[in-house]
Give the backbone structure.
Amino acid sequence: MVKGELPLDIIEGIKAKDESALRLLMERYGDMLLRTAWLLLKDRQAAEEAVQDTFIQAYAKIGQLEDPQRLRGWLVAIAVNRCRMRQRTWSWRSIFPAAAAVIHADEDTGGGAGAEALFMMRWEQVQLGEAIRSLDYIYRECLTLYYYHEMSVKEIAGQLKLPENTVKSRLARGRALLRRILEKEGLKDGQ
């Protein structure tokens, strides 16, 4: 299998229990799912476990995916559900929280950006991530799906099984809370 294969090729490979297809799926979607889970769970180890569970479930239930072009959305839905499950379950991590971990997006440093500009960009990303993770789960979930996955209100409502107005309310409330946190931290223009 080559890197540029279509989701249909990956799906057919997984249905045939081809491990290289699973590896390709993990390479292609792993970082995106890990960032999503990390934003939702606020814990790197829990996020890694949720993503691992996502791939296990996707591998086992690939036959349930009706539209191969919706592979990414299907994986996000599984990951969000795994995060919700982890959010509901108590663990020893509740007593002994792990040290905060930061996941940085891969950055293109070849654009001639100076060290100071690169530092400021990274610092703002960390501050934004911390601000998002400080929100209640229901707001983190909607904001992550809306901004990070660029899902519409209707898509989010369908995925979370909520009325559209509830999603709109959570987005508005989440934005307001996030704005207050960022203004307090001195990142007024952070998004």
